[in-house]
Design brief:
Number of strands: 0
Order of helices and strands: HHHH
Shape: elongated
Oligomer: single chain
Strand content: under 5%
Distance between the termini: 125 Å
Number of helices: 4
Radius of gyration: 40 Å
Helix content: over 70%
Length: about 100
């Protein structure tokens, strides 16, 4: 009988201690989700940018000149096409305005 009383008292103490709230300081959730300072974020972004630029495969001078030439040729072709369409529409508009008079 003594053993059962001791075990009952032990169970009561365990349940009482679990019912009482623990007074521990817990960190606020806002501290975890808080953004770092703007200067810290800018510094990180600059570091990331420079590390990414180190991995870039830069073109050689001949490759850059060739690509530039291709772009200039395409722009000139587009210029000729747009000028031809513009000339055609202006001629059509002039024809329509002379017919109306």
């Amino acid at each position: 009988m003594a053993k059962s009383n001791e075990s009952n008292e032990k169970v009561q103490k365990d349940t009482e201690s679990s019912v009482q709230p623990k007074q521990q300081k817990q960190p606020k959730k806002a501290d975890k989700n808080k953004k770092p300072n703007i200067f810290v974020r800018m510094g990180r972004k600059i570091k990331e940018t420079f590390s990414e630029l180190k991995r870039v495969t830069w073109p050689t001078v001949p490759q850059a000149l060739k690509a530039t030439g291709v772009v200039i040729v395409i722009v000139l072709v587009c210029l000729v096409i747009v000028t031809a369409v513009n000339y055609g529409f202006s001629a059509l508009l002039e024809l329509l305005t002379t017919l109306g008079e």
